[in-house]
TrEMBL record:
Organism: uncultured Desulfobacterium sp
Cellular component aspect of the GO annotation: cytoplasm
Protein name according to UniProt: Transcriptional regulator MntR
The keyword Transferase belongs to this UniProt entry's keyword annotation: no
Record-annotated HTH dtxR-type domain positions: 7-68
Keywords: DNA-binding, Iron, Transcription, Transcription regulation
Compartment annotation: Cytoplasm
The protein's assembly and partners: Homodimer.
Recorded superkingdom: Bacteria
Pfam families: Fe_dep_repr_C, Fe_dep_repress, FeoA
PANTHER family the UniProt entry points to: IRON (METAL) DEPENDENT REPRESSOR, DTXR FAMILY, IRON-DEPENDENT TRANSCRIPTIONAL REGULATOR
Gene Ontology molecular functions: DNA binding; DNA-binding transcription factor activity; protein dimerization activity; transition metal ion binding
Family: Belongs to the DtxR/MntR family.
Chain's role: In the presence of manganese, represses expression of mntH and mntS. Up-regulates expression of mntP.
Length: 252
């Protein structure tokens, strides 16, 4: 039976470091962790013993370190919290990446899950709302750098009215680009419109958080086009190409 455990902020940092080192080097040794976290070797030894006692890592002196299934889940949860916060600071608040990363490191250990999910929902809302989107975020960035003036507001309203007139001349509809998820390139993102899959495949996709209205971003496509790595709701997932072929996306 797996032990119940409570992790301190420090132990969460160690789990996160172990996960990233495994992803980069496939093997982890105490010296790698000490170098990454800039801590002493005795501190690493103490943390590793504590994580092993909680059955989150497999650890023995002079041997490589690995995560247990429970440890991997816990590490992914910490990383998700970090990335959701960092992405929000960069993409919504227009904060510099280095500053966003530092703030995320401080906040990731204490933010309640319900508030984390609200961060995700708000970021998605900003991206898909007709009154939001990249232009709205760019406007906020400009406001932070230049200050708010009545002249700026008048210019923004004027440009918005012009866009509305152009849309009306096109028949009142905003141009929409609809693709299959498999057709998106790395860095592109879109909103899920339809999921044309059935049975176990459909169940698996929904369980991973790919639902109607969710914002999905393609991170990497394997050289042969399979699998496709995506990010959705702060999670990093790998999908087979045949699975992504049944998911319709509205480009953002």
């Amino acid at each position: 039976m797996t032990k119940a455990f409570t992790l301190t902020a420090s132990l969460e940092d160690y789990l996160e470091a172990i996960f990233h080192i495994i992803a980069e080097k496939q093997a982890v040794r105490p010296k790698d962790i000490a170098k990454r976290l800039k801590v002493s070797n005795p501190s690493v030894t103490g943390a590793l013993r504590s994580l092993a006692d909680k059955e989150l890592i497999n650890y023995a002196p002079y041997d490589v370190i690995s995560l247990t299934p429970t440890g991997k889940m816990a590490a992914k949860d910490v990383i998700r919290r970090h990335e959701v916060l960092s992405d929000f600071f960069v993409k919504v608040l227009a904060v510099e990446e280095a500053d966003a990363d530092k703030a995320a490191c401080l906040m990731e250990h204490s933010i309640p899950r319900v508030i984390l999910e609200r961060f995700i929902q708000f970021a998605e809302f900003v991206e898909v709302c007709p009154r939001g989107g990249s232009k709205w975020i760019a406007g906020f960035n400009y406001h932070c750098d230049q200050g708010d003036t009545q002249e700026n507001c008048e210019k923004c309203i004027s440009l918005t009215l012009e866009e509305v007139r152009q849309r009306r001349n096109r028949g009142g509809k905003k141009a929409m680009t609809i693709l299959k998820l498999k057709d998106l390139k790395p860095g592109q993102k879109g909103k899920v419109l339809k999921i044309n899959t059935r049975g176990e495949t459909n169940k698996r996709i929904v369980e991973m958080g790919i639902t109607i209205g969710a914002v999905v971003e393609v991170e990497r496509v394997a050289p042969m086009g399979d699998p496709i790595d995506i990010k959705v709701k702060g999670y990093h997932l790998s999908l087979r190409k045949e699975e992504t072929g049944g998911i319709e996306i509205e480009m953002l």
